Amino acid sequence: MKKQVFIGLLISAVFLYLAFRNVNIPEMVEALEKANYWWLLPGIVMMFISLGIRAYRWQFFLLSIAKVPIKKLFSSMMIGYMANNVLPLRLGEIMRALAIGNSAKISRTSAFATILVERIIDVISLLMILGFTVFFHEFPPNIKNAGLIIFAGSVLLVVFIVLLMEKTDRTIRFVWWLGSPLPRRIRKSINKNLRKFLGGFEVFRQTQHYPTIIVQSILLWVLYGGIIYVTFFAFDLKIEENSQMIVSLVILVMISIGIMIPSSPGFIGTYHYLCQQGLALFGVAETDALSFAIVLHVSNYIPMTLVGFYYFWRENMNFSDALAEKKNLVENNSNGEKPSNDLSQNNQNSPSS
User: Fold this and answer.
1) Engineered SS bond to 144: which of 89, 111, 139, 238, CB 3.0-4.6 Å?
2) What is the pTM of this model?
3) Could you tell me where the beta strands, DSSP code E, fall in the chain?
4) Contact 218/235 with Cβ under 8 angstroms?
């Protein structure tokens, strides 16, 4: 664990160096002083609206397990985001599953499976957004071609997931054949995990939920892009008005990639460098771009962390539970155990209501 934490800190340090190496510090300070911070308020409002929509969407993912109240989902989600901001090893997802397991009395393993599915859907959506942007902006040929390939790959991934749900045995046999060069042990592990993976997609077998989930997902990404868009007005970045929405989407993709890279708590460094380089594609100076990245990051980090700590305190949780739960989830997955609904252990911290 200590090794993983060290590697994350090292990666953050490298990306911070890359972000700051060509930056004029006095000019950056001046840009931060001149920024109009009132424009952060609509962005913060949109952030919390998006979190509410995300909680509502998560409720649909959990329908095959239980109908969980939005309030409990929102509080569990905020605890998870706070934990990702202050704890190493992306323990926020574990904290989120633990929180909803305790408060809603459902299987934490099953809840964690829906969180993984949510992340997969987010990645697919993100790849589609990346492909979408190359159709509406003149990028260099290498970036445009890469975007089109990624878009095509995301469509194929969606087709694969649909086939896996509708033609499970045939698809798994195809994957088994495709993995012929691999050792039998690895192929068996892949097949076992594919079947587990399907558990989180149970809600998608109920086609009546498709329109709601699709609309929710579109609204989420529109709001995420809107947060970046309104933050542009806090700075004088000299981005053409007719390009600002496309730039927002590109920055959204770049930041999301930065968040995926292993790093320190709060995605320090990776977030800032990828945001900076995304703006550089549109001719924004690195100093101004880094100033923007710092403000955008802080405007999300502080409110989310404070609200998360409030729910964390209210539900009487502690961080050591996350490490224990991570170990339990790993053991369950490695042993191929089915999710258990027994919440008798580690349930002393459940809220009374």
Assistant:
1) 139
2) 0.85
3) none
4) no
